[in-house]
Amino acid sequence: MILQLITDGDINDFEEAVDLIVECGRLPISIVIIGISKDTKEEWPLMKKLDDNKLQLKDSAGRKS
């Protein structure tokens, strides 16, 4: 199974995305986050937060990834 998150900038529904990622964390799933932008210098701080291997995500109920 593959979950694709595609955005053209920053993630507007970040909390919902984190909830979904944490919920899927117990499944045999690959998560692919794709940022599409004409601006090659786009920073996307929230996408970087999702991709941070040192950070353990917590959903809105406090469950950890």
Automatic annotation (TrEMBL):
<dbReference type="InterPro" id="IPR010734">
    <property type="entry name" value="Copine_C"/>
</dbReference>
<dbReference type="Pfam" id="PF07002">
    <property type="entry name" value="Copine"/>
</dbReference>
<feature type="domain" description="Copine C-terminal">
    <location>
        <begin position="2"/>
        <end position="63"/>
    </location>
</feature>
<dbReference type="InterPro" id="IPR036465">
    <property type="entry name" value="vWFA_dom_sf"/>
</dbReference>
<protein>
    <recommendedName>
        <fullName>Copine C-terminal domain-containing protein</fullName>
    </recommendedName>
</protein>
